[in-house]
C-alpha cells in the first residue's frame, strides 16, 4: 500500500476490548428469559456488531424497549468481571500515539459503555475522539460516524485506516473512503474477516506498528 496512514479509527468491542463473552452471556440472559431454549451461544454471534435496537427490533418488535433495558442492566452489572482488553492492546496504543498518529474510537455502543471499558484499560486519555451511538443518527456501516471522527481529527480518508472485527467496520470504512483492516481474533473467525476483503488483516494488534512504521509525515 502506497498510502501513508496518519489516522486510525478503531472499533471497540471485539477489536480492542474483549467483550465477546460479556455480549454473548448478556444476550443469553435476556433471550433466555423471553424465548426459553430458542437461542444458543452460536446464534448470538450473529447479533454482535449491529446496534442493539436493530437486533431486538428484528427479534421482538413488540418488546424492544423492555429487552433493551434488561440487556443494558445485565451488561453493566457484569461488565467488569466478564470483559478485559485483548493482550498487548494498551501498550501498542501508547506506542502509536507516541508516533503522532491521530486515533479515535468509532463504535456502535453507547458512549457510557465505551468509556467504562476505556477506564478498565487505563486508556481513556489515548484517544483524541470517541464516537459512540449517542453521537450519530446512523451507525456503521453508514459512513456518518467515521466521517464525524475524521472531521473532528482533521483527517483525510485516503490516509485513514478503519480497524474492526465485523462487516460493519469494513463496510463502514469503504463507505467512508478509508483503508480497512480486519482482525484475525474476531469472534466470527479469521475466515469470515478474510471474506470481507479488507486492505489489511491483523494477526495481532502489534501488526499496526509495522503497518504504520514511518507513516506519519514530519510536522
TrEMBL record:
SUPFAM superfamilies: HAD-like
One Pfam match: HAD_2
Taxonomic superkingdom: Bacteria
Any GO BP: DNA repair
Gene Ontology CC: cytosol
InterPro entries: HAD-like_hydrolase_sf, HAD-like_sf, HAD-SF_hydro_IA, HAD_2, HAD_sf, PGP-like_dom2
GO molecular function per UniProt: phosphoglycolate phosphatase activity
Name this protein carries in UniProt: Pyrophosphatase PpaX
Amino acid at each position: 500500500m502506497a498510502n501513508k496512514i496518519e489516522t486510525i479509527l478503531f472499533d471497540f468491542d471485539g477489536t480492542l476490548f474483549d467483550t465477546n463473552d460479556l455480549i454473548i452471556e448478556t444476550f443469553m440472559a435476556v433471550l433466555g428469559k423471553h424465548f426459553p431454549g430458542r437461542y444458543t451461544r452460536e446464534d448470538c454471534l450473529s447479533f454482535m456488531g449491529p446496534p442493539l435496537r436493530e437486533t431486538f427490533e428484528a427479534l421482538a418488535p413488540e418488546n424492544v424497549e423492555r429487552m433493551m433495558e434488561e440487556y443494558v442492566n445485565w451488561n453493566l452489572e457484569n461488565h467488569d468481571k466478564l470483559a478485559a482488553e485483548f493482550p498487548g492492546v494498551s501498550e501498542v496504543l501508547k506506542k502509536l500515539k507516541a508516533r503522532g498518529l491521530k486515533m479515535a474510537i468509532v463504535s456502535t455502543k453507547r458512549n457510557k459503555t465505551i468509556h467504562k471499558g476505556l477506564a478498565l484499560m487505563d486508556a481513556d486519555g489515548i484517544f483524541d475522539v470517541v464516537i459512540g451511538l449517542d453521537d450519530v443518527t446512523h451507525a456503521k456501516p453508514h459512513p456518518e460516524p467515521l466521517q464525524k471522527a475524521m472531521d473532528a481529527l482533521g483527517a483525510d480518508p485516503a490516509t485513514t485506516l478503519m480497524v474492526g472485527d465485523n462487516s460493519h467496520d469494513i463496510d463502514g470504512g469503504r463507505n467512508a473512503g478509508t483503508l480497512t483492516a480486519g482482525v484475525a481474533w474476531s469472534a466470527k473467525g479469521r475466515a469470515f474477516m478474510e471474506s470481507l476483503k479488507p486492505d489489511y488483516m491483523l494477526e495481532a494488534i502489534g501488526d499496526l506498528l509495522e503497518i504504520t512504521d514511518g507513516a506519519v509525515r514530519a510536522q
